[in-house]
Amino acid sequence: MSVSKLKILIVDDEPDILELIEYNLKKEGYQVYTASNGQEAVTEAKKVLPDLIILDIMMPKMDGIEACRVMRTMPEFKNTFMVFLTARSEEYSEIVGFNVGADDYIAKPIKPRALVSRINAILRRNSPAEESSDNKLEIGDLVIDREAYLVFQGGNKVVLAKKEFELLYLLASKPGKVYTREIILKNIWEDSVVVTNRTIDVHIRKLREKLGETYVSTVKGVGYKFELH
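Above: the chain sequence. Below: its structure as tokens.
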């Protein structure tokens, strides 16, 4: 989809911040909408159905965390990108943000070029890799064959256990997206009753042993993401 067809909703209670981000994203070609608090964000989002929402955390009436939580319960926003924008640098706020469904986290003060670059990268996650009709995910030097449960790295076959393969496929399908432990457990071990966070850690370690350390990154206190180098 071309940039001109993509819609972004910016939510912040500081007019100067809204104006700065709106100006730079419009200059990039995006359709931009604004709101000044979480309640307005939910109302406006229902009207315009944005592709991405930038939410400040500290706002009156309804903060960004609650607004994200509310919208994530609505089917129309299931696949909408949610990005938190905040001056708070505590690790806790990042963990809470990811746990309620955030896709990324951008700290103030705003650096326009860096912001635009990050937004462009996030929106490219809609089609992060080439997937052929026979369910082969091709990303970097990896080829992941979903039907055959095979992985090739640089043309060499890598043998993975079933759950290792499913975990890799989940992470690689959206490079850069942070998957919380809860989401990983739900997607990979939904029918199991004795799975713990330790199980995820062990499978991540095995993936790193077989593929190298560069692909899967740990987001401390939150979960994991696939890095495309």
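The chain has eight helices and 13 strands.
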